[in-house]
Each structure stands twice: as C-alpha cells, then as structure tokens.
Backbone:
C-alpha cells in the first residue's frame, strides 16, 4: 500500500486548511470556488513554510485534497447543504431551446447549471446505418449517438483529437437511454446520427446529452414514443448512514461515494449506470435513490416541455423524405433494369434515391416531397403497370425499331406495336426509319389489345390504315384478316406471308379471280406458281382506266405493284 502522506503531514495541513476551506465550500460557482481553493492552498504552504513546486508541496497538496473532501462531506451530513448551496434533493436551474441551427434537421440546446450540451440530429436513408463487426448478433445499427467532450468545456486547453474512452462510454450511455423510444424502421424508415457537443461541463454531461437528444429529435419531427431525460445521483456514506444527492456536481462525483445515473421517460427507466466506491450498498438506499431520481426526472421533463412538449407534426423542411413501398419480387429486376439502367434513370429524373431489398421493399428518399412522389409514381407504374385503354390516344416514345414496325412506350412498363403499314398515313413506306427513329415522340391510338395483353397501335390524326389502303387501291374489298401482318403486335413475330402489304394485295386478287371458299394454301401455291398468268391489280387498273383483264398493262412508276412483286420474289 502506497501512503501519499503521513499522519503528521495531514495534521499540520488540516490545522491550517480547515478554517480557509470553510469559506471555500460555500462558494457556488465552479470557477470562483477553484480560484478560492488555490488561494487557500497557497496560504497553507506559506503558513507551513513549504516551497511551492517542491516534493514536500506535492505531498501537502494530497493531504489538502483529503481535508477538502472531509470538510465538504461534513457540511452535507451536518447541515444538508452542498457546495453550491443546494439541498440534497434540489436540481440546478434548467433552460432548453430548440431550432438553434437553422439548416440542421433538428437541434436542441440543454443547460442545467453550468453544464451545457448542444445536440444536432441528422436523418438519412437506412443504407447509411452503421455496420458492426463485433461478436454481437447485431451486424448494424440505425441509431448512432456521438459525444464530444472538448477541453474547453472544463476551462482547460488541450489537443482536439479523436474520442477517448470516457467520450465513447458517455456517448454509448446516452445512446442506450434514447434508443427505446426511437420508432421502428417499418414505421419510420430513417437512419439517425445524433452528435452531442459539450460546450460546458460541471457534472452529468452524459445525462444532459440525453435531454439534448430528446429536444433535437422532437425538433426534427421524429415521432419518438416519449421524451427522455436523465439525472446523476450521488451518495455520501458516514457512520450514521447515507445521504443521497440529486444532480451532483463534478466535484461531488469526485468527493462522494457513488455516481448513479438514471435516464428514462415519465413512466419507464431506459438506462442505468452505477459507479460506487464503497463495497456494499443496502437495497433500501438504492430504492430511495431510484425514487429520488424519478422526482428529479419528472421535474427535468416538465422544464423541457417549456421548449417543446412533443415531436413536430411535420419533418423539418430540410430533412429528407423517405417512404417505403412493397412490390412483387419478380418486378425487382424491371425496376433495376439491365446493369442498373432503369434505377439510375429514375434517380436522375426525379433526384430521389432508391434502395431495394430482396423481399421487394423499395425505400425511396428525396430532399423534398414532390421528388419523392415522382419517384414513387415511377416505381409503382413499373411494378403495377397501368392498363392501356382501347381507343384512347397516348403520347409515346419510340423505344425499338424493327423491319415490321416500331415499338412505342405509351405507359411505364407498357409498349405497343405500331406496324409499318400504319406509319405512312395510308402510303406504303420501304422501311420504318423513313418516318420514325429511336427516341421520337409520337401520338398513337390503341387499336386492339389481344388476349395476351399485347397492344396494337395506330397513328393518331390519320385515317385507319386499312381504309387508306383500300382507297389507294381503288376501293377493293376489305381483307378478311384486317391485318394479317398484325401478328407482329403480339410480340413482333414475322408475318407468315411475308408482310401485311402482300396479304392485302393477294386477298384482293383472290376476291376478283377465285372462289373465296377454295383452300387457302392451294390458292397461295397457285398464286406463286402462276404469278405471270393473272392480273396483279384489277381494282387499281380500273381506277387508272386500264383493262382489268390484262396483266401486261402495267405502267412505269407503279411503285406499289413493283414493291409487291419484289417482296414476293424475296420469299
């Protein structure tokens, strides 16, 4: 056992110091009391003839601290009065403010006596939660509290480095105290980062951080279950029993026998921490300390209510808006798109951020409400695509061009086929690219939706293609199959007979030269085998004044006829 001072040294120091310390322990201010205490010690050294800074002065200094502790404790035991003049159950004066930092999502300033803490709340998407690599079963946490205790908070100078053991412990205690009232991720899909900056400290800055966190969260509009406050309790043991102290000072923590921190709501304790310097603590003393702490906690909560009594109804205007929607699992790939193309487009167009989980939960975050709603609408439109209506006009975008037509996106997740025969406005075109290209905007009308949900389109503002073709052909009979080439609208399959234009020409020829009830396959074979022995276009020849019975009256420039012939030769 190391003895810091001898009994003789203690007696000499006590004889000189007790009278001086009687005046020191009644000074309420921490700074003023420290100045008076230093002056008292200097007087003791001078009276004892000890040179300041010597080894003997160091030994006398340790004895002086022991005397100070005894004087302070005796005053509390005998008079029930503490260093700052309070009673054993009295809480220091309290003040609270919110909204101290305009652009922060939430902020709160809590002050109790000479202890002052500024807490700032920042909200983010769940993917910003902290990943944990520990032996715990938890691998992440969405509520994070960081505690900073700079040297200037105690009137000292020092390096501003990373958090030390004390800061980490105090921050963990404050985090544990507030965590039970944080809403679940299902009800409030946010990650939280709270930072407590201790601006001034004279006892229980960790419990002040709990109070500041509550103020900050309510200022941000976080729907916490109930406000949380904390208080530090102390204890002085003496021969006749124990004296429990409410809201201890920093020096009372050092000179007392217990530091008992209690945090919770008006009805529930959410966190406890006990440091004791004595070996045993009777159960009735602990019970009394808890009861005394509850009274103090209720008082602190009532003072906090003067600044803000419940969470704001709306989130802070600068806080991100986050909402979760559930989609079918088989739609996840469509929302992500090939190599993430679709999700990047949604984020670029709306300014929102999307997180997609394996169970089909899509969390959408945005800096404002309109951006969130726009992104949400796009996600839901892909996951639950709206149904196209027959006869309704849509403004779409050409998303694919093939040899038989163009696919037009008319609704999110819904494309329709605009067949090549519908594009020329009644005139035959050689290829789709002569009229439409990828990315072109085009107004279309839904003509038909087949049993498989495939959509066939017509150009808006033009006559029906079949009627236009008939007029151009001289009013020939309308084909039985309105557009046999329209099978392409059922997924873009190649027409069986080589194209819609040929089918219309062949049907008209069969209507003029053969019985319609004759077997269609045999008629097609005969048509291909005897192509030169029959007229190609009776009705067109009649319109032009030609002889319908002669197939040798074709005139130069009849591009429609030559197109059919060339098309058939390619089969």
Residues:
């Amino acid at each position: 056992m190391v003895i810091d001072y001898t009994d003789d040294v203690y007696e000499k120091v006590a004889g000189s110091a007790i009278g001086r310390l009687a005046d020191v322990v009644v000074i309420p201010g921490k700074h003023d009391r420290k100045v008076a205490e230093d002056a008292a010690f200097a007087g003791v050294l001078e009276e004892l003839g000890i040179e300041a800074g010597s080894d003997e002065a160091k030994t006398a200094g340790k004895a002086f601290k022991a005397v100070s502790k005894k004087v302070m404790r005796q005053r509390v035991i005998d008079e029930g009065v503490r260093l700052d003049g309070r009673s054993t159950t009295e809480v220091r004066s309290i003040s609270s403010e919110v909204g101290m930092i305009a652009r922060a999502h939430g902020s709160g300033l809590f002050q109790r006596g000479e202890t002052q803490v500024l807490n700032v709340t920042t909200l983010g998407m769940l993917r910003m939660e902290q990943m944990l690599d520990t032996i715990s079963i938890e691998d992440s946490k969405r509520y994070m509290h960081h505690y900073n205790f700079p040297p200037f908070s105690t009137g000292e100078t020092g390096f501003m480095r990373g958090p030390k053991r004390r800061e980490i412990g105090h921050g963990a205690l404050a985090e544990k105290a507030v965590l039970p009232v944080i809403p679940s991720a299902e009800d409030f899909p946010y990650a939280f980062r709270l930072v407590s900056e201790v601006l001034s400290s004279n006892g229980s800055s960790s419990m002040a951080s709990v109070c500041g966190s509550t103020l900050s969260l309510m200022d941000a509009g976080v729907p916490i279950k109930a406000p949380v406050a904390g208080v530090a309790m102390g204890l002085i043991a003496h021969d006749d029993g124990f004296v429990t102290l409410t809201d201890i000072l920093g020096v009372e923590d050092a000179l007392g026998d217990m530091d008992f921190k209690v945090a919770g709501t008006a009805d529930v304790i959410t966190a406890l921490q006990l440091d004791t310097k004595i070996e045993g603590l009777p159960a009735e003393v602990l019970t009394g300390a808890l009861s005394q702490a509850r009274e103090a906690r209720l008082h602190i909560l009532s003072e906090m209510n003067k600044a803000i009594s419940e969470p704001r109804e709306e989130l802070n205007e600068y806080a991100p808006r986050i909402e979760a929607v559930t989609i079918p699992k088989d739609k996840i790939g469509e929302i992500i798109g090939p190599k993430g193309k679709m999700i990047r487009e949604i984020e670029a167009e709306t300014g929102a951020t999307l997180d997609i989980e394996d169970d089909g939960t899509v969390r959408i975050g945005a800096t404002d409400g309109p951006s969130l709603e726009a992104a949400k609408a796009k996600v839901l439109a892909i996951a639950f695509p709206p149904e196209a209506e027959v006869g309704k006009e849509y403004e779409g975008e050409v998303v694919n061009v093939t040899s038989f037509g163009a696919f037009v996106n008319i609704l999110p997740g819904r494309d329709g086929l605009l067949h090549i025969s519908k594009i020329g406005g009644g005139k035959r075109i050689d290829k789709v690219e002569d009229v439409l290209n990828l990315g072109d905007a085009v107004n279309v009308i839904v003509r038909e939706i087949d049993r498989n949900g495939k959509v066939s389109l017509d150009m808006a503002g033009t006559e029906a293609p079949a009627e236009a073709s008939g007029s151009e052909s001289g009013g020939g009979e309308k084909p039985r199959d309105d557009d046999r080439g329209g099978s392409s609208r059922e997924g873009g399959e190649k027409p069986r007979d080589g194209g819609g234009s040929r089918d219309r020409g062949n049907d008209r020829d069969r209507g003029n030269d053969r019985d319609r009830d004759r077997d269609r396959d045999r008629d097609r074979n005969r048509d291909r085998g005897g192509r030169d022995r029959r007229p190609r276009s009776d009705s067109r020849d009649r319109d032009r004044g030609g002889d319908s019975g002669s197939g040798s009256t074709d005139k130069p420039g009849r591009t429609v006829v030559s197109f059919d012939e060339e098309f058939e030769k390619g089969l």
Observations:
- Residues 465-564, 566-571 have pLDDT under 50 and may be disordered.
